Amino acid sequence: RPLFFDKSKRQQVIVESFYVDKYPASNLEYMNFIKEESKWSLENAKSIFVEKAYLSHWKGNTPDKSIHNAAVVNVSWFAARAYCHWKGKRLPSTAEWEFVALADETQRDASYKKDYSARILKWYSRPGGVNRSEVGSTYKNFYGVYDMHGLIWEWVEDFSTAMVTGDSRGDSSLDKGLFCGSGSLGASNFNDYAAFMRYGFRSSLDAKYTVNNLGFRCAYNN
């Protein structure tokens, strides 16, 4: 079920079968990555791929032991993508991530449950800061996946296509509904404000951005 739809015709977003990591990548796992892939160390990572805040919560190329099992943040899309490729995986697509994120503890699609949306929005309203919570510290959803909500924001492969204009993708009513406030008029679920916030956040990102509550998890094909 897509977040946006064209009222003139029914549309479906097909998500092929895939696997996604149970947890987001941790600081310890990312440290092991840069030990093998030194081009992503603090001193070697190129400024066109990461901002100055890259791994700024670490001490050099080493995270404090107290956050070894916390989800890694302050990593760019380029860095997250490189990590997943190193693991023989990839970043999930927006459609894949949203598919998994629809589930609460007991249902595949909990987006129409007001208490579920309220729980997510409550987390979104909290003041930001560097994540220090361990992976797996939030609920396990219907698919056995942890931390889809309540821990960190997460990169997706196609984050930059979250919002487009009619000029960039053709002059269709769907395309026109994918930017600015007009998106709310074409929403497939008017109760899903949390999804609007995620799409808005993704549309504000650049691939080199490093944010203190933005990390990632990997996916791979079936």
Blueprint (SSEs and pairs):
Elements: E1 18-20, H1 27-36, H2 77-86, H3 94-101, H4 114-124, E2 153-154, H5 166-169, H6 173-176, H7 193-203, E3 214-215, E4 219-221
Parallel strand pairs: 2-3
Antiparallel strand pairs: 1-4
Provide an overview of this structure.
The chain has 222 residues and is mainly alpha-helical. The protein has one domain (18-221). It is built from seven helices and four strands; from the N terminus they run βααααβαααββ. It has helices at 27-36, 77-86, 94-101, 114-124, 166-169, 173-176, 193-203, and strands spanning 18-20, 153-154, 214-215, 219-221. The strands form two sheets. A two-stranded antiparallel ribbon has the order 1-4. The chain has a two-stranded parallel sheet with strand order 2-3. It is globular, with a radius of gyration of 18 Å.
Lateral arrangement of strands in the main beta sheet: 1-4
- Content of β-strand: under 5%
Number of strands: 4
How are helices and strands ordered from N to C? EHHHHEHHHEE
Q: Return the average pLDDT rounded to an integer.
A: 81
The total count of helices amounts to 7
Low-pLDDT stretches are: 1-10, 163-187
Q: Major sheet: size, sense and barrel closure?
A: 2 strands, antiparallel
Work out the count of structural domains. Answer: 1
Radius of gyration: 18 Å
Shape: globular
Q: What portion of residues is helical?
A: 25-40%
Please identify the oligomeric state: single chain
Estimated structural class: mainly alpha
How many angstroms separate the termini?
21 Å
